[in-house]
Amino acid sequence: METPGSQSSLHRANLERVVRAVRLAGSLTQAEIARTTGLSAATVSNIVRELKDGGTVQVTPTSAGGRRARSVSLRGDAGIVIGVDFGHTHLRVAVGNLAHQVLAEEAEPLDVDASAAQGFDAAEALVNRLIAATGVDRATIAGIGLGVPGPIDVESGTLGSTAILPGWTGTRPAEEMRGRLGVPVHVDNDANLGALGELVWGAGKGVRDLAYIKVSSGVGAGLVIDGTIYRGPGGTAGEIGHITLDESGPVCRCGNRGCLETFTAARHVLPLLHSSHGTDLTMESVVRLARDGDPGCRRVIADVGRHIGSGVANLCNLLNPSRVVLGGDLAEAGELVLGPIRESVGRYAIPSAARQLTLLPGALGGRAEVLGALALALSEMGDSTLLDGTLPSATPAFT
C-alpha cells in the first residue's frame, strides 16, 4: 500500500502527470512534457522509459526547432474513444484511438423534427456500424463523448431548452446512450466541443485560452481558460448569443429583445435575402454566393460580422482571450466576415485587449464538434486505468 507523501506515491503521481499530458495533447516531445508538467528533464526521461517498457506509450524520432527529438504518444492499441455529434440537420460519429488517430468517421442527415428516441436510435446504429467497420474490440472502448446543440445541466446531465432540437428538451443524452452502449458517456454542448476540437487538433493548438464562436441556427461560444473548458456552475457559460445589442430589437427565443442571436443566427439572417434570392437559401449557400461576388450576400455577411464583433469585443473586455476562433458555415467566408469582426473589435474592445487578440477561422470545419467529442472522451479518462491496464466500467458521467 502506498503511503501519501512517500516516494512510491510521488512516483505514481509523476507517472500519472506525464500520461495525462500526453493523453490530452496527443503527442509531445520530452522537452514539451517537462514544460507542461513542471518535472525535470531527467525525471521525464526516466518516466518515459518506464512507460515505454510497460507498453503504455510509444516513442518515435522527430525534430523540434531543427534539432533531433523524441515524440511521445500513447500506444494506439491502448484503447478506443468514440465521438458523437448531434447537429441541427446532421449526425456525425468518429472512432479514434488514444494516440489521437481517427480510425473511422461518418455523417448522415438528421431530421430536425425527429424525436429524441429516433436520434438516439440513429446514433446507436451508426456507432455500431463504425465499430464493426474498424474491427475494434468493444472491451477496449474507454468512453464516448457526446455533443448536443443546447445547454447541459452540469449536475443532472439534463438537456435544457433548445430551439434547435425542441423535442429533446429534458432528456438525459449521456444516460440514454450509456444504457444503449454500456460504456461511460460524457456530454457537452456543441460550442464547447468545437472549442475542444480546435484546441486539440485545429486553430487553437498550442494556446491556453481561447473562445470558439459558432454561428449556425443559434450562436454560442466555447470558452477555454488555462487549457480547460469553462462551463460555469450551471453549464451555461458562453451563451454569447444572448448579449443584448438593441433593447428595442427583435424578440429573441429567450424572451429578451435585440440579442446578438437575432442579428446573426441563420433563421434571422436568411429571411433578409428571401425577396431577392428566394427561400431555399442556407447559410452555406449565402457564403458561397458572397465569395462569388454577390453584393447582397456580401452586405449581409459584413453586417453579421460587425454584430459578432460586438460580442467578441465584450469577451475581450471581460476575459482578454489571446485567440478567438470562428466556426460554423460562416467561417468559410474568410475575410468577408473576419474583416468586419476585427473592425468592431477595434472599435468596442479595450485597445490593449484588441491588440493581444488573434482572430482566426476554424481549421476543422464541420468536423470540429465530433473531434471535440473525441477530445472530451479522452479528457475524462482516468490515467490510472492506462497505467494499470484496465478500462473503466460504465459508471455515471455526472457525479
What does this structure look like?
This protein is an alpha/beta fold and 399 residues long. The chain has 15 helices and 13 strands. The strands form three sheets. A five-stranded mixed sheet has the order 6-5-4-7-8, with helices on both faces. A five-stranded mixed sheet has the order 11-10-9-12-13. Strand 5 and strand 6 form a beta hairpin.
**Given the helix and strand composition, which structural class is it?**
alpha/beta
| Secondary structure: number of strands | 13
This entry's quaternary arrangement is single chain
Mean pLDDT equals 89
Rg result: 22 Å
Helix content: 40-55%
Give the ordered list of helices and strands. Answer: HEHHEEEEEHEHEHEEEHHHHHEHHEHH
Share of residues in strands: 15-25%
User: Which overall shape is indicated by the principal axes computed on the Cα atoms?
Assistant: globular
Q: What is the distance, rounded to the nearest whole angstrom, between the alpha carbons of the first and last residues?
A: 27 Å
Strand order of the largest sheet: 6-5-4-7-8
- Stretches with pLDDT under 50, minimum 5 residues: 393-399
Tally of separate helices: 15
The largest sheet, given as strand count, sense and whether it forms a barrel, is: 5 strands, mixed
